[in-house]
Design a protein that fits this description.
Blueprint: H1 6-13, E1 18-21, E2 27-30, E3 36-39, E4 52-55, H2 57-68, E5 78-81, E6 87-90, E7 94-97, E8 100-103, E9 120-123, E10 130-133, E11 143-144, E12 147-148, H3 152-156, E13 160-163, E14 168-171
Length: 183
């Protein structure tokens, strides 16, 4: 079984609804086009690594309200949310601009060759350098060499507020007890 097939991705990512993944096992797309990719650490305090699940938009909104205590808005076309239930990535032909998924030509204007272009809110005039990122991928630690990098909370869990690529350097006291525990 190849890792880049839906079945291979489901096994590698441990997400039974995964439709595409990276070679390191991170799910990047839900098999059901109407579902949204949600990091496990958005819901469970003891979820480690890059685990994820796929949920219908109504279920994402329900979980977001239950956990954050406020209504979350998921724009049409959203494909992934962050640990705060904010949309961070739209469909591949769209960019997230002012909280809406819009066509790339009218949105971020990033080149699709820019790594992680889907997470960029605004590119420079060349379209080859990201200036600001969406959601928890925002600066100061989100933009690295003109592209949006993974944030600490997605790398090391909801309780991590500052990190380097190897470890969490500072924990976020706000989430010490703030998420559900996995059973």
């Amino acid at each position: 079984m190849a890792w880049n097939t839906p079945v291979g991705c489901q096994a590698l990512s441990k997400n039974a609804q995964c439709g595409a993944c990276t070679s390191d096992g991170a799910c990047t797309l839900c098999a059901n086009a109407n579902h949204i990719l949600v990091p496990l650490n958005a819901i469970y305090i003891n979820a480690a690594g890059q685990g994820s699940q796929c949920m219908a938009p109504a279920d994402v909104q329900k979980e977001g309200l239950a956990i954050t205590g406020k209504a979350v808005s998921i724009p049409t076309g959203c494909k992934e949310v962050d640990t705060e239930f904010k949309c961070i990535r739209c469909a591949n032909t769209q960019s997230l601009t002012n909280g809406k998924c819009v066509a790339l030509a009218s949105g971020s204007k990033c080149k699709t060759t820019l790594p992680f272009y889907q997470y960029c809110a605004q590119c420079d005039a060349t379209g080859k350098k990201c200036l600001t990122c969406n959601g928890s991928r925002s600066p100061p630690t989100g933009v690295t060499d003109g592209r949006c990098a993974l944030p600490c909370k997605q790398l090391f869990g909801i309780g991590c507020s500052k990190c380097n690529q190897a470890k969490c350097a500072t924990t976020d006291a706000k989430y010490a007890q703030g998420r559900k525990r996995m059973m």
